[in-house]
Amino acid sequence: MQNHGFGRRPLLGLSLAAGLAVPALAQPRPVTLVVPFPPGGSTDVMGRLLAERMAPLLGQPVLVENRPGAATVVGAEYVARAAPDGATLLVNSGTTLTLNPLLMRNLSYKPEDFAAVSLLSILPFAFVLQNRLPPNIADFVALAKAQPGRLNYGTNGPSSFNNIAAVLVAEKLGIRMQDVTYRGDAQQLNDFLAGTLDVLVVGGASAIGTHRNGQGRIIGWTGDRRMPGFPDIPTFAETHPEAVAQTYFGLVAPARTPPAAIARLAAAAGEALKEPSLRDRLLAEGQFAIGSGPEECAAFMRQEAARWAPVLRRMNLQID
């Protein structure tokens, strides 16, 4: 089974004492965490929880600013062009610095425009099935193979991470489903609750809430480990080791941000993510807290790009 190496061994992150011993930023203004999604989603939740806990550690205000649009391009471009002084950071997801550079021919930024600060968390997706459908992976696969292309699932578009996760897992399971494109998770959930959508492929609170409310059933996770709180629900990777498809959240700064500022911010983020109440809250949102140092964050993002590049080429996805 593939294991990205986080959550099961001590991290090599920076110590808070070492990081916060660096003098405060030259300009005594708030640190702004730019979230490239609208309020309310998993990335926004991460940004706000982190900002609340980083502020007292840094001794200065930490604000959250939502700049959604164009598959996170609007927010990412804003941070890439910001002054490299440690005062403007991006709460990025796998979409921003993994998928977009691989999929978009005319992307207005590149990964090299950012300096890694910290890998914040990992978020797997869940396959949530209608209660009328089989209650486990084996029976679901048998049904899907008996009726190829008949079952449908919702996505946020061909290049969205949940669609790519669904396609990868379906490929490894040897099944074929019909995708239905929506403009967001809310529309998918409405159709699922109305019974017109067979399968939700979503992460976080949407999957967990639907399952706990008895409105659907999670049959499997797309991550590399089971989710605490749901010990009886397996991962697809337990029987199909290559069926791992999970996104991540990270903290990055504009390139050329001074190493001292990066170290200070990474130490604060890492210390915040050690807090048990925050780790528990993120688990409730379907996220595994990490809190790495800059080097681990950068290495992880390079690894993700290398892993997904051949998958996306095989899927023949490209956005102008």
From TrEMBL:
Which protein family is named in the record? Belongs to the UPF0065 (bug) family.
Output the InterPro entries linked to this UniProt entry: BUG, Bug_dom1
One of this protein's Pfam families, by short name? TctC
Keywords of this protein's UniProt record, alphabetized?
Receptor, Signal
| Protein's name in the database | Tripartite-type tricarboxylate transporter, receptor component TctC
Keyword Signal annotated: yes
Instruction: List, alphabetically, the CDD domains matched.
Output: PBP2_Bug_TTT
Extract the signal peptide range. Answer: 1-26
